[in-house]
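hey
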């Protein structure tokens, strides 16, 4: 069960959840109508206007090891994909590791952050931040060709509360699901980069590869330059 903290406006629900973590809080959900400094992966901004999106962060103390942190993101991606499919009847797809797509456009991003105890390798806390473009969104020009919203892609207008409650019910069972691991099969089926030629971006590095699989730890398995590599983090784009 998560205790809800609601905001009309905040810089970033992830920032707030991390501040609460340092106060010793856990099992909280920080949700905001809009974010003034919404953050994405790789130091990017996450467009978070009021009225159309669901922006929230879960503050948890997961039992998975710090090195298996990618599983939190993969679990969250499957949860979002399944909830949106159940509520709209339309198919979703996942781009490793953290984006949920509809009709080839990104409709949700996930940013997982946390603090891992160096000696035990365990999470002191983790924050799973999820941003879903639900209602019709006026995207800035640079996002309009790659991002969309659930209403535009499905014709279904979902209330933020309905989606949040359905997701919280999934996260209530996260520990059990992580133990069983069956959600990774759903992840693989939905992960549209598998089998494709991709460009991997890892830090300052960029290289071509073929995406082969996502392993049971949520890492992307690729073949690059004749070698098999597993990527715990990074980003891929499909080469056309
Ligand atoms: C990405 O697309 O790279 C990840 C985007 C994550 C956005 C969510 S919105 C709620 C939470 N607060 C943030 O500042 N970021 C996450």
């Amino acid at each position: 069960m998560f205790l809800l903290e609601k905001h009309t406006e905040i810089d970033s629900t992830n920032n707030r959840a991390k501040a609460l973590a340092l106060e010793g809080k856990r099992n909280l959900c920080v949700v905001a109508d809009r974010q003034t400094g919404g953050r994405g992966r790789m130091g990017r901004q996450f467009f978070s206007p009021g009225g159309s999106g669901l922006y929230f962060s879960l503050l948890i103390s997961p039992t998975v090891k710090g090195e298996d942190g990618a599983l939190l993101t993969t679990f969250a991606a499957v949860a979002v994909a399944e909830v949106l499919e159940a509520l709209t009847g339309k198919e979703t797809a996942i781009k490793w590791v953290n984006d949920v797509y509809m009709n080839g456009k990104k409709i949700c991003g996930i940013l997982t952050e946390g603090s891992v105890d160096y000696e035990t390798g365990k999470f002191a806390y983790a924050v799973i931040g999820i941003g879903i473009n639900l209602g019709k969104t006026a995207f800035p020009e640079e996002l309009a060709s790659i991002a969309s919203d659930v209403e535009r892609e499905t014709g279904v207008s979902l209330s933020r509360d309905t989606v949040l409650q359905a997701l919280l019910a999934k996260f209530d069972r996260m520990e059990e699901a992580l133990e069983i691991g069956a959600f990774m099969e759903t992840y693989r089926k939905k992960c549209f980069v598998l089998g494709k030629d991709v460009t991997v971006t890892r830090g300052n590095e960029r290289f071509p590869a073929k995406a082969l699989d996502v392993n049971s730890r949520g890492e992307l398995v690729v073949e690059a330059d004749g070698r098999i590599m597993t990527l715990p983090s990074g980003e891929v784009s499909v080469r056309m």
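The mean pLDDT is 97. The first strand starts at residue 3 and ends at 10.
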